[in-house]
TrEMBL record:
The chain crosses the membrane at residues 365-386. Residues 44-54, 271-285 have a biased composition (Polar residues). The lineage of its organism: Eukaryota, Fungi, Dikarya, Basidiomycota, Ustilaginomycotina. This is SURF1-like protein. One of its GO terms (biological process) is mitochondrial respiratory chain complex IV assembly. It is found in: Membrane; Mitochondrion inner membrane. The keyword S-adenosyl-L-methionine does not apply. Its main location: membrane.
Amino acid sequence: MNNAPRGLVSALASTSRVNQVASRHLLRPSAALPALSAPPRLCSPTTSRFLSTSPPRPQPSSASGSTSSSTSPDEFESLHSSRYRGQGAKPDRPPWYRSPTLLLLGFMPIFTFGLGVWQIKRLGWKLNLIEELEWKLKKEPIGLPKNINLSVLPSFDFRLVSLSGHFDHSRVMFLGPRVREGTIGYHVVVPFMRDGGGDEVMVDRGFVSEKSLIGEGSQRRLKKDESVAPTGHVTLTALLPRISPPNYFTPPNEPQNNRWFHADPEAMAQWASTSPRGAAQLSSGEHNDDDGEDSYTPSAGVASSVKKMLGVQSGDSSSTTSSGEHRVLPVFLEEIFEGYDGGIRVEKGIPVGRAATIELRNQHAVYAATWFSLSAAMAGMFALLVRRRR
């Protein structure tokens, strides 16, 4: 041992001293340990509780064994209430019959169903009316009596009438504008002087295109052509139509300007009875004077003056008043056209009358189907919403 190297002995002595120092530090109480022995907290205790993945430890109960102070009496009552349905449950809703929207939606199917039933009844009424009018059209044409009773005239709607006499195109009226097969034009209404006496009536001769007319406004008239405006004796068949009232969008008639947008037999008859156009055209020489040479002699003029003073009219005095005015009854007829050349007649400017058919609009079946469909759709919506509220 005396021969051992001196350096090895020094190293062993140093190691022994280090072990002694370490043993003394380990045997000291924990209060004397350095402050860095505990790791620093990076977050608050509340935050660390949410960030921790391990389940929270149960808190020890108090010595008295009572309920934890973290649960209040109100919360405890709500947990044991009969209205509590658990977490995520939908809130309570009032019954469907307390919702105004659902009540209105429940009423609409009943209302629309009633409208559908009403349209079914209207369909039956319209079919019966069409059948009745077709039965009237199949009857033989009747002749108008000399003295027409206007009070019973509506009972003869859609009856065919046979007429013979003369047109007076000096007092023509144009009803429209109207459209026929894409062509704009007017209906020609002319006073008709009947054979055998009696007051004049009005005849709607039919449709003419706008380009077949001459003049504008109150001066509008037909072209002077015998095929367009016949002046001789004619025999025709006409229909006594049912005059419908104008709708909201139809402008009012202007009798002072001879502008007629809808048929008004009363106003048109009054205008034709007092219209000065006939006298004006006669004085201007538009009509031929075929009365003979005696019409221009002084004796003929004196005789005419005496007749006027006595209230006696030469010729047929039944449709002319003592003042020279033509009396026109508010009887509106529509001339019947039976042929297949209506388009050619329109091109030539010849009026085209109506066909002897019933032209009543019948859409009640479509309306009924629409109302019933709406009723079924809204009933389904109502049932679905009521089911969701339960």
